[in-house]
Design brief:
- The longest helix is centred in the first third of the chain and has 14 residues.
- A hairpin with a 4-residue loop joins β1 and β2.
- This protein has 3 helices and 2 strands; from the N terminus they run αααββ.
- It has one domain.
- The radius of gyration is 10 Å and the shape is globular.
- With 58 residues, it is mostly helical.
- The protein has a two-stranded antiparallel ribbon with strand order 1-2.
- It holds the Pfam family DUF4250.
- This is DUF4250 domain-containing protein.
- It comes from Bacteroides stercorirosoris.
């Protein structure tokens, strides 16, 4: 599955997947075969950060 290119769409998509399907960002990245660093970097570049405690970006 290709991830959304738009950062806001990516933010929404990743948080939906974390909420509905995965217990951690690492689990999502492993299962979807995507780079955690790429996701975190792109979302940080627009002001979001990952909270492992809450398992979501905000």
């Amino acid at each position: 599955m290709e991830l959304p290119k738009d950062p806001m769409m990516l933010f929404s998509f990743i948080n939906m997947k974390l909420r509905d399907c995965y217990s951690s960002l690492d689990e999502l990245c492993d299962d979807m075969n995507v780079s955690k660093e790429m996701i975190v970097g792109l979302l940080q570049s627009v002001g979001f950060e990952y909270s492992a405690e809450h398992n979501k970006f905000w």
